């Protein structure tokens, strides 16, 4: 009988790792070494010698030349990372089962366990080793593997044990012998904690039996033993976001085949058309050539949407076509892998190869005559050639509008070859990297076949050649990178989307279930409530409740958030026990999420689910039920719950593709239960989910979300129920004609809405109608035909005509305004969030990662944003507006979850947004600081979870300090702080209540720095616009003065931010050419010759005077000549320095023109830095060397203590001593004087000992 805390290998390994392939060569080595190891086991051997065979087996099979395996102290041996043991192994001899020293299944209270506890404590306490992964006890046959997190929780965090251990080690017990620790300290504790000590157990004699069987099935089971010993498992190398790791080799070579390259632009990487080594055989160049030579661009409507200039349009159109084709090809590659897996690795189901498809014409045939046509309607020649390929009924395989107006893939030249990428994955006959050229299409197929697109195949774990896995998540990442080349979007890692979807959807589920039980407050409450029910009708009802959730991503990109939301909704249903089959029965399989990937395992065996046909080619009934249930559950959720909008049509294409792929994963063969061997099976067709993902500018709408739709409904022939019905019918339409007919009706309804809403909501439209009526009645009616108009009547008529024409022109211009070209009408685009009267209800979750586009790039829509968004400020980046939009789109008590740059939390431009958010319920703020959450993009991300109009007062704040974790949820639970909403005042001081109270005390008892500086102010260092021209070194200075003595008059000493130290400046003999406005450059010929070299760059500056050689205007030049306190803009510690003489500074500094030594001492104090850490923007973790942005808006709020002259003098005198010491020796020890200054400042504020501890971080 299996014990409660005892796991099998299968239960201990992540499912994604269980199904990962193993190369034949490394697996054969494992088997060989395992047989050799088992042959060396000798029960008569002394215990001391038992460790050597274990060590040799692990070293020679897995860790040779990678990790040291050695003893440490009394530890038998350990696997090391660097100089730290991370896997601790205690070996016992393979004696009879009565050996009292060895742990046993059902009895862990033995010496081996006490030893492991002792070794663990020694490593954690004496060596501060926080990197231990596992602890192992073995008698060579039996293995007990304990996760170090269990030991951390049960032993290291046990205060009584730590006290007893410390006293024993300090010889404060009756004995310091190990025997006392084992028997008197460890033994009773292990006896108490044994029910909580989870472990993995296996016996290698079972593995030996599998080796002897020597079958594929036995090897698949034996692979679990391989994996439990592997570094991937024992060293916990499986990355937290493994499913979404970019395969760079695949990505770069795919770019090459397309004809693109990744280049660096201003510190960022972006995708562009190749500039060098352009190859006409690439897909992009082949496409561009045909677009150009056949003048295809002139056939495209709204060509301006592809760019302003011809070259931009050509590139963008060609790229969209290439992405369309690659979408289909990669989708088909996944389908091919799926079909091969379904049919137990039958190679006849492979079709993306040159044997089936020789050229682009046949590929076009595959798209439009095979995938888009039911099998019963295909021509005989198509059936003969593509017999195994199913009909999918997806608009993915209908020619797009762009294809119809430009070209299709069949139009590409077939004969062109492409030079193979220099670091290609392809090998030649000698198993060396291929060199030379290949036909482009053939190259593409061979390239794709070099990767594994069928990674969930559990039938063939051991493979001859292990290929890198390419799954839907990886493809999404790749296309996001290709597609985000200019729109500021970044692919959101899986651990982020998984966490955000989990938190927001579980809150939403709790809110939805209040309709069943009003007292429900949390998801745990929902679980407790639902588990009381078991009848089919109840399970269906609860399932439908989850289906009623509406999720929207208004900047959907590649659709990663929607895919994560889909997975999370399925996992939620499974956890609640309401994931049911067609008959209303709960599935006997568990659906969960690992690394942002949906995992389906049997509830009792933990075996991964795999839909495989029987050997007679028919699906087993049990598997059919599960596959069918998963497909239709996904279908219902995608059709009814998931919605997205993106300004980029290519993103919309990719998002739709991702959702189709998710459905494809659980596609099933149609069967009536009578299917027999040899019968032709059809795959379940895919629904038309594309209508839920729309292209448009989410932020711009002609009509307000509250605009009255009632009057418009009375003016058209359809009601909301009919509109909603047409949309639902479209999703399930099975032929092109029906789909196109329904789309036409839907577009007509939306067009009528636009016209009618405008009539009732735009006063200009109402006025125009009134003018038209007045003109007709007064001047065009029959009563005026009998006589002529008087001059007075003519004037009045002309006045009406002029006003009418002016308004008509104004409305036409507004209608055609560039701002509204891509406007998205939230008011009626999604009938699923409208009630039967047409009232806007709203979404339950709005989630996403808005594009990071700087405010300088959105000038065209700023007037619109100013008039329509209360969070508007002229310097706000685009992402700010998505918060307000999200809140508008939500129904009350619903969840907004966004990941954005954290800069708005402190920046002045974020004030309006902070005010808006604090009107609602802030649930979570998860700040990642400088951590590289997004590859190759330093965005300082933060997750914000908000409940619209919620009223709970507290929130969770977490400062994530490392990305080295397996589960973000666990990290936040362990480090998150519960804060009160009052922390979110003007400055958003995200700290515990004691810190907030202390900050308020400092503000109350001090005065702000801006008020303190009555006769001066904080000023900025100099901006030159081009430092390379104006900053010079000592050598250049001497050269210029030698050439012309006059140069000396305009060369001045310069310090930069990095030169500023604490109290003093570490001057590095750098100089500034000070050509102020009015300087006659002809008087300084050497200077002019020097600057002439940079003339074109200097002329292009915005920061310049009237002439190209002049610096910009500055009204405080004289302040650089006298005493001042200077500090860098960005610093990780207090670095306020004093400069008594002439010294200029660059724009990486601020300075205060003053000789106030009291202020200088205060600015360098612990208290001042403590305050600044709480209110400044932080780059990184301020408690671990993170840098602060000491912007003036923060510095001016710094509270300065109110002091009497004598108190100020006490500090000033100490500062003078510090300055004197620093002048003699920059490395002088000033710690005693600084401590005295800190104590004086603490006394000035009457701080308590506890408050001092807070400031000093104790």
UniProtKB/TrEMBL annotation:
Enzyme class: transferase
Type II methyltransferase M.TaqI-like domain residues: 641-934
Protein name listed in UniProt: site-specific DNA-methyltransferase (adenine-specific)
GO biological processes: DNA restriction-modification system; methylation
DUF7814 domain span: 243-469
Record-listed E.C. numbers: 2.1.1.72
Pfam families per record: DUF7149, DUF7814, Eco57I, TaqI_C
InterPro entries for this protein: DNA_methylase_N6_adenine_CS, DUF7149, DUF7814, MethylTrfase_TaqI-like_dom, N4_N6_ade-DNA_methylase, SAM-dependent_MTases_sf, TaqI_C
Residues forming coiled coils: 790-817
Known catalytic reactions: a 2'-deoxyadenosine in DNA + S-adenosyl-L-methionine = an N(6)-methyl-2'-deoxyadenosine in DNA + S-adenosyl-L-homocysteine + H(+)
Domain TaqI-like C-terminal specificity: 1053-1199
Domain DUF7149: 8-242
Keyword line: Coiled coil, DNA-binding, Methyltransferase, Restriction system, S-adenosyl-L-methionine, Transferase
Entry GO MF terms: DNA binding; site-specific DNA-methyltransferase (adenine-specific) activity
